[in-house]
Amino acid sequence: MDPNNAIKLLETSPLFAVLTPEELAMLNRDGTVQTYGKHAVLYRPGQTSDRLYFILKGTVKVTVHAERKDIIKYIVRPGGLLGESCLAGEETRRDFAYSMDDQLEFMEFPATAVLSVMKSNFAFAQSLLHLIGERLRYTESQLENVVLKDSKSRIVDFLRRMGLEQGSRVGYETLVRHNMTHQDIADMTGTSRQMVTAVLNQLKRSNLLHFNRKKILFRDLNALPVSLN
User: Fold this and answer.
1) Domain edge (last residue) among 91, 125, 147
2) Which of 112, 147, 182 is the last residue of a domain?
3) Domain for residue 160, yes or no?
4) What is the pLDDT of residue 227?
5) Distance between the two ends of the chain, CA-based, in angstroms?
6) Domain range enclosing 110
7) Is residue 228 part of a domain?
8) Are 210 and 134 in contact (CB under 8 A)?
9) What angle (nearest 5°) sits at the alpha carbon of residue 75, between those of residues 70 and 80?
10) Is residue 229, in this structure, part of any structural domain at all?
11) 102 and 72 together in one domain
12) Same domain, yes or no, for 155 and 47?
């Protein structure tokens, strides 16, 4: 992507909309546009934590490894930011960030440049602190779900949230276009791929949703059960 087009996308982001033209120009000068392929690693544990990434196209999953499997902490989509822990004192990375798409485009910023803008723009600093807080609250919510809910309920909760956050409404129906495998959903919910498949098939038999590799059509999000037998 042309750097000029990238900076225009920055201007439309709620996170960066509070910046002055001069501050945007500074970030544009220090930032670089990168293009990665599917499964490429943006960063891994042990690497120096000194850069932030603004997603222009594609999606990224941020994961940790536990007992020979990935656990997905969260997914970042176009217009989202990741790597922000370096602003809160993280010196080395503690997780992985992978590309989920054949063509991932992002703008990479040195943490020093972002910190400099934060010092001069309190509203921008507040926006980034809010982002860090939201990520922490999301992680805490995921942990509570693992402790308090059974695996089927966690999967249904995740599907409902996917519909609410990513879906396009057509009457009572909600269409979600996605690039997540059953294993990705399992890694997001702390379950197994077999359990994800079983839950999706049960919901399909109940005519609550239909799905394929790239789409999920919810017949009525409000009709999704709280739990399954």
Assistant:
1) 147
2) 147
3) yes
4) 75
5) 48
6) 3-147
7) no
8) no
9) 150
10) no
11) yes
12) no
| Same domain flag for 37 and 88 | yes
Model confidence pLDDT, tens digit, residues 140-193: 888 888 888 999 999 999 999 999 999 999 888 999 998 899 999 999 998 999
* One-letter amino acid of 8: K
The model's pLDDT over 90-134, given as tens digits with 9 standing for 90+, comes to 999 999 999 999 999 999 999 999 999 999 999 999 999 999 999
Buried b (16+ CB within 10 A) or exposed e, 153-181: bbbbbbbbebbeeebeeeeebbebebebe
Record the pTM: 0.84
Classify residue 170: in a domain, yes or no: yes
Token pair, residue 171, equals 């009457």
3-class secondary structure, 3: helix
Residues 6+ apart with CB under 8 A from 164: 221
How long, in residues, is the chain? Answer: 229
CB 29 within 8 A of CB 78: no
C-alpha angle 154-220-146 in degrees, rounded to nearest 5:
5
| DSSP, res 153 | H
Tens of pLDDT, residues 16-51: 989 999 999 899 899 999 999 999 999 999 999 999
**For residue 90, which amino acid is it?**
E
Residue with tokens 């943006």: 42
